[in-house]
Design goal:
Helix content is 74%, strand content 0%. The protein is an all-alpha fold. The C terminus is likely disordered.
Amino acid sequence: MEAVRVALLLLALRVTVHKTEKNFENPKENNVSKQEALNESQLVAMQNTFSSQVEDLSRRKKNEEQGHHLYKKSIKILKHSKSKKEKEKAYQLLTKAADMGHLKAMEKLADALLFGYHGLQNITAAVTLYETLAEKGSHKGQTALGFMFSYGIGMEYNPAKALVYYTFASLGGNLISKMILGYRYWVGINVPRNCETALTNYRKVAYLVADKLKKNEDMLVEKVRLVEKSENLSSNNDFLDWDVHQYYKFLADRGDTQIQVYLGQLHLAGRKGLEKDHSKAFYYFLKAAKAGNTHGMALLGKMFLEGSVAVTQSNASAFKYFTMAAEKGNAVGLWGLGLLYFQGKGVPVNYTEAFKYFHKAAEKGLADAQFQLGIIYHSGTGVRKDYKLAFKYFYLASQNGQPVAVYYLAQMYAAGTGVFRSCQNAVELYRSVCELGSWSEKFLTAYFAYQGGNIDSSLSQYALLAEMGYEVAQSNSAYILETEQVKILSKEQRYPLALLLWNRAAAQGNAFARVKTGDYHFYGYGTNKDYVTAAIHYSLAVDHHIAQAMFNLAYMYEHGLGIPKDIHLAKRWYDLASETSPDASVPVFLARMKLEVNLLLSEMQLFKQFIPSWKLSKLNNMLRPHWDLLIMSLDLPSVLVAKPSWTPVGEDQASSITLKENSFLLEETSECMIILYLCCTCYLFSHTTNCFSLKASNTLSTI
């Protein structure tokens, strides 16, 4: 458009010059006036201006072409290269492209500087780039500035400005900002709660995500909880260890068809930390199929049906392998044949046959088949349209993990089709679809950054996901903020932000986050001490059967902190904590012993007569921080007296040596326990001497 405009201006200039030349040729106007001379000089100036504009436009166009070329080259390197040097080279090319004003290069480079991709984190430079991008109307730049204002990263903490930037970015079509606004209106963060507004934002994002899921363009990403990793609370490994992977490969090479199919599925989708590699997936599926494994046959058929870089699309091959699997009753094979007949790929369209195969596969519990039946009833293809049956099959498919079925359920709840309209249900379903978008890949890069010790990079990525409403990211961000390794935020910022994130995660049903929120209010981290609020949070966590919350609540009942003092309720909650978790047995035992000792002291009439009441309360207050040492002092002698004796069994010399070593270790342990007992006793004696130093006159009068 700019080239056309300049061309028109030059044409007008030529016409004007031509008319001026004709005026000079007119013999009646040989005497050039001053005004005409002035006009001539203005025309020359205009011509020079236009020529300089043309040069600027051509230079700008050349820079844009060079910048675009450098950008494409850098993206290609980043996509295909794994070498650190190659990636550094790619970012150098990006920097050059950004200097030439290439918008996408600037956005990519700013993201790298903010999130610390490949060790490039520089918050100050990122802020400068994002501000330039926002001035140029980049919705990505506006979203990033909103995120930085929301956390106070690189600039002041200002939720109001964050909301403004998110709003402008959302109007510009940014999907991340739409998700952030959807979450804010859904929960009521800095805006009034509004279900319909949240629905509008989530629906637009869910539509695009579902479309990509239908084409298998987006992959599901494991969301690792850092708390569970650090405390070994998770029974499922989110990533295969190297030695486990090698063992699986060994078994696959030895002919274990189940392992072959499993490894093929991991490589097909890029799960459990393994790279997405269709060549390896095809290799494992083919080995399993040749050995007679029906899952291998069916998955081979699926690969031929979809096609990829490694496998040429072939409807005939897909039909062959689906048929082989279906004849042996494999659900995926039945579904595959139904899909071929439904779409008319390699065979004539036959909705009756398609319905038959889908129904057989659905009865075996296959989610994809249940989803296809939902589509058939929803659209009325080959059958009478029935929204209730469509809802039934979409629901079954969603419960079995079919993500696109969740989108259709959300559509039905939003429109009230086949079910009563429910804005709340629609928002929750749309939101679960939105969380499957490509941005969820940040969970992987954030986790790998954390594992590699790049804490600030990990925090910035988790924090953006937390802003979008991911509960796992909220708890992970709060967990990282509690460490001393965070440099992009000051200590004064960390604890209030951590409390905010724990609270948001707790509101989404995270029981551990609920306990942490109670802890922050109990100890006054990031807020003022508030025992009442702490007790409320512990009470809510108790509903999730969390032993830690039960123990904390018992302690508060014992001492009357934030709630009325009640010894009997304290005992009950201590007992429930011990019953809920075996790990709580020892702390509960010590707490109960301390509780019983306090009760005994308070009920001993003779002790009350001997020591004034003010002294007894002083003893109780003084021993409170050291009650665990007191219990250890009382309990250790019984442990030492009950020391077992080890005697070798059998004549095996090795076992005899082992038992002697164990006996030696036990003796050493007993000596250490004796020393610990003496230390505890001396420590308590030194801290309780003042309590018993009564005046002689008071003592005699009492006696």
